[in-house]
Amino acid sequence: MKKIMGFVLMLGLFSTQLYAGEQYSLEKAKEQVANNNIQVSIAYEQYVQVKSEEQAKTLQLLPTLSVDMLVLNYQYTILRTIVPEPSRFFEASAQKDLALAANDNRTIVKKNLLEDLEKTFFLFQFHKEMIASFNKEAQITNEIAARSKEAFDLGAIDFSAYYATQRNVVSAKTQKVNGNELLQSEEYALKLILQVKDNTDTLDLEALKFYNESLDFPATAQEAVTIAVNNSKEVEQFDHLIDAANKQKKGVAVSWISWGGVGFDYFSRVSIAKTEVNKIELNKKKAVLGIQNQVAAQYAQIQSQKEKMGYQDQLLTMAQDDYSKALTSQSDLLNSFINTKKAELSLMYAQRESSKLKYELELQFIKLKRLLGANMMTNVVPRT
Fold first, then answer.
1. For the segment 133-173, what is each residue's pLDDT rounded down to a tens digit?
2. H or E segment at 291?
3. What is the CATH number of domain 2-371?
4. pTM for the complete prediction?
5. Domain boundaries, the chain
6. What tens digit of pLDDT does each residue of 236-272 get?
7. Measuring CA to CA, how many Å separate 363 from each of 66, 110, 122, 165?
8. What share of the chain is helix, strand, coil (3-state, %, to 5)?
9. Which of 323, 357, 354 is nearest to 341 (CA)?
10. CB 184 within 8 A of CB 123
11. Distance separating alpha carbons of residues 9 and 45, to the nearest angstrom
C-alpha cells in the first residue's frame, strides 16, 4: 500500500512539472487545480475516510463469530451476536449522511479554489497592464524633470517648481516598485495554487477577455437569492449534517435497549445529542442568511460599479479632449511642453481608473457566479 501511495505522489509531482514553462490558459489552469491541487486531494481523502467509516459501521450490523459462543449461556451469546443493538442501525445510517457531507465539502473546496484562481488570473493581468502604464509615467516624469532642470539652471523657474518635478520622479519610481511587488505576490499565489514547482520561472499566461458579465445571471436580486440558497453546497452540507445528527440522537435515545444495560449518563447523552442538532440547525440558518445577504449586496455593488464606470467614461473623454487640445497648441516653450505632458499624465490616470473599474466589475461577477452555485469549470449558472 505504501508503494502505491508513493507512486501516486510521484506521479502528482511529475504532472505539475509538466506544466512548468508552458503557457497557461484559464481553462488549463482550472483543470490543473481541479485534478491536482493538494487541498482538493486532502478533501477527497477525508471523504474516502468517512466513506470507509460508513462501510465499517454497516459491517458491524452483520453477525460475528466469537469464542464466547462455545462457552455456557451460548444461547444468550448467539442472540447478542446475531441481533445488533438498535442504536447501531442509527449510527450506520448517520455515517452515510456524514459521507455525503464530506463529499459536499470536497466540492466546496474545489469551487473556492477555482474562484480564487480566476480572480488572481484577472488581477495578475490587471497589474501587468498597470506596470506598463507606470513605466510610461516614469518616462514622462523624467522628461519633465530634465526640461525643468534646464529651466532652473537658466533661472527660468524657481526651486520649488524644480523640486516638484524631482519629487514626481521619485514618486513614479516608488509606484513602479509597489506595482512590481503586487505582481510578484499574485504570481507566487498562482504558482502555489497551480503547484508549479519551479518558482524561478515566470508564468506565461494567455491574455484574458472579460466574459463573466455576459453569463446567464438572474435578472433580479430576489430571484438570485432563491437560486443561490437552492444550489449552495454549504447549505446542502448542513442538511446532511442535520440528518446525521438527528439519526445519532435517535440512536442515543434507544441506547437503553442494550445488551449491556443503561448507564447513569443516559439522560446527559440524550441532552447532548439534542443540543448538537440544534447547533447545526442554527449554523445552517446563519449560512442561509449569509448567502442571502451576500447575493443582495453583490447585486447592489454591481449596479453601483456600473454607475461609477459611466461617470469615469465621461472623465476619460474630458481627459482625451484636453490632451488633444494640448498637442494641437504645443510649442517649443517650456510651459507648453510641461502642459502637454501633464495632460498626457492626466489621460493616463483616467485610463488606469477606467481599467481598474472594469476589472473590479469582472471580479464582482466572478464572486456572484460562485455565490449562485455555478459550475466553476463550465461557468454554467443555475436558473432554479
1. 999 999 999 999 999 998 888 888 899 989 999 999 999 99
2. helix 266-328
3. 1.20.1600.10
4. 0.81
5. 2-371
6. 999 999 999 998 888 777 764 554 545 556 677 788 8
7. 63, 18, 8, 36
8. 80, 0, 20
9. 323
10. no
11. 13
